[in-house]
């Protein structure tokens, strides 16, 4: 019987009835009202979520918690209080993360993402 096999739901560990709406995500069963972001506890917009170490997050909270910030774009964080998260390809260099287009030579502004570079005086 379905009720016996899924008698405890993933987040709340409460049982459910046949009238309850449930969500099955990666083999885990949730009440629809329990299937929320692990950080802000809000439902997932359009059902879209990101998973990290078994926990599910809305896009905003996932980026705040886990996405790297760009070494160039984040220079403006203190003024605008805005983080430019890197989604997609990340360049790791000089103890920072960069958008490919932001990783450039400080002297000539040439993009360095796909070419070699030499560090000079920390730049």
UniProtKB/TrEMBL annotation:
Single GO molecular function: metal ion binding
GO cellular component: cell-cell junction; cytoplasm; focal adhesion
Residues of the signal peptide: none
Cited Pfam families: LIM
Biological process annotations from GO: cell-cell adhesion; cell-cell junction organization; positive regulation of integrin-mediated signaling pathway; positive regulation of substrate adhesion-dependent cell spreading
LIM zinc-binding domain: residues covered: 7-68, 71-123
Record keywords: LIM domain, Metal-binding, Zinc
Domain of life from the UniProt record: Eukaryota
SMART domains per UniProt: LIM (SM00132)
PANTHER family: LIM DOMAIN-CONTAINING PROTEIN
Protein name: LIM zinc-binding domain-containing protein
Organism per entry: Angiostrongylus cantonensis
